[in-house]
């Protein structure tokens, strides 16, 4: 039976108000140098923070380039910019260089914005602010609903934004994504200030804005979904060859790699290592709709992997740049495993008390490295220095270093 207090509480919360149209209507898409110059002038003359968003075509096109950029600023209204027609937005980026940019999940959009010349010096990330403030659901729709009381229509989030011309319902959705972003920013700033967490957020935002471009992944083929099934080096070689040729084809065609060949098909071929095209065609993902020419390409990749010597096959695990996976610590170093268990418990308790996700309180990898190779004297200062080396911010060190140091000291063997 539902608790009467829960029923009363739910009845007291008004239903969210559907947000159906932008305040000034759907702006025309900026797709010419003249129109872009007008947008730059308008936004340079605007006031206050600028809301920024970008739409990509993940799952449809190769890479993560932006196919639509949305902005909104007081005094300038909303702009929708086509970065395919206007591929250089550096003038806009320069006009807004000293302005605070408000983004939701900034690390997702900043790389594709940088590609077209837009790099902020200051940001406010409403998703990260929501995490630090203790919200359970931090998607944009959930945040706008819970904080501002409006319901955003989210039906077009996964469409192919490379489509031209973009349909009007999609443009409406895109404009609404920045409609209330500054309002959300202001409400979250007030909430963080009330909780005593605003300085934490400001340090996080500064770190994101100052971060260098992400380095290319080492052995990106190892992220193939289903890799846990692949147990032999020669099978790994097949995954690597198929992934590499798939990536080349996807890049040339400008399509998502998964539309060229699925990860499941790559893993199936790696497990079977088919000796010929007929055997390959019988595997899942290499069915009747795939022509002989395509099958020949994939079989050639399998054959190349089969022909490699054992020495040239990839190692079973990636080259370690740090501690081994924690699941192996008990066998490799029981003392380190005990340190990690104690440190994790301390961080977990602290995160629960502060109502902050553990991964935002401190990077799990930083804690693992401290536990694997602890300071000779695990004082708060020594632990804090190690955390700083791994990129921890000042607020994180001030909160976490002492708790981790106590945990390490508690499990130290008696001399």
UniProtKB/TrEMBL annotation:
Family matches, as Gene3D superfamilies: HRDC domain, Ribonuclease H-like superfamily/Ribonuclease H
PANTHER family the UniProt entry points to: RIBONUCLEASE D (PTHR47649)
Protein name, as recorded: HRDC domain-containing protein
InterPro entries the record matches: 3'-5'_exonuclease_dom (IPR002562), Exo_C (IPR041605), HRDC-like_sf (IPR010997), HRDC_dom (IPR002121), HRDC_dom_sf (IPR044876), RNase_D-like (IPR051086), RNaseH-like_sf (IPR012337), RNaseH_sf (IPR036397)
Domain HRDC residue range list: 232-312
Residue ranges, annotated region (Disordered): 308-333
Pfam family, one: DNA_pol_A_exoN
């Amino acid at each position: 039976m539902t608790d009467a207090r829960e029923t009363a509480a739910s009845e007291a919360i008004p239903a969210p108000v559907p947000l159906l149209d932008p305040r000034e209507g759907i702006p025309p898409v900026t797709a010419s140098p003249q129109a872009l110059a007008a947008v730059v002038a308008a936004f340079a003359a605007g006031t206050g923070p600028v809301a920024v968003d970008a739409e990509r075509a993940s799952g449809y096109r190769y890479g993560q380039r932006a196919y639509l950029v949305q902005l909104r600023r007081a005094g300038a209204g909303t702009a929708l910019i086509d970065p395919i027609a206007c591929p250089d937005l550096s003038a806009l980026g320069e006009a807004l260089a000293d302005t605070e940019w408000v983004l939701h999940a900034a690390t997702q959009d900043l790389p594709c914005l940088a590609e077209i010349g837009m790099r902020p010096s200051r940001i406010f990330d409403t998703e990260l602010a929501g995490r630090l403030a203790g919200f359970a659901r931090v998607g944009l729709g959930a945040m706008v609903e819970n904080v501002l009381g409006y319901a955003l229509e989210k039906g077009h989030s996964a469409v192919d934004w490379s489509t031209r011309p973009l349909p009007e319902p999609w443009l409406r959705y895109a404009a609404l994504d920045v409609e209330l972003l500054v309002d959300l920013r202001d409400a979250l700033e007030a909430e963080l200030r009330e909780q005593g967490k605003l300085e934490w957020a400001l340090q996080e935002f500064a770190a994101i804005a100052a971060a260098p471009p992400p380095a290319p992944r080492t052995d990106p083929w190892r992220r193939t979904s289903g890799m846990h099934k692949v147990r032999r080096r020669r099978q790994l070689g097949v995954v690597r060859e198929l992934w590499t040729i798939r990536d080349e084809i996807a890049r040339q065609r400008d399509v998502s790699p998964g539309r060229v060949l699925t990860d499941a098909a790559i893993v199936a071929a790696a497990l079977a290592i088919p000796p010929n095209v007929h055997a390959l065609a019988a595997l899942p993902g290499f069915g009747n709709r795939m022509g002989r020419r395509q099958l020949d390409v994939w079989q050639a990749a399998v054959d190349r992997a089969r022909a490699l010597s054992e020495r040239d096959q990839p190692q079973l695990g990636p080259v370690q740049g740090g501690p081994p996976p924690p699941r192996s610590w008990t066998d490799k170093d029981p003392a380190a495993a005990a340190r990690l268990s104690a440190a994790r418990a301390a961080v977990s308790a602290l995160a629960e008390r502060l109502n902050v996700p553990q991964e935002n309180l401190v990077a799990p990898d930083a804690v693992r490295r401290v536990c694997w190779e602890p300071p000779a004297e695990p004082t708060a200062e020594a632990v804090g220095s190690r955390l700083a080396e791994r990129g921890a911010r000042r607020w994180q060190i001030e909160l976490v270093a002492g708790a981790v140091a106590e945990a390490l000291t508690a499990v130290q063997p008696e001399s």
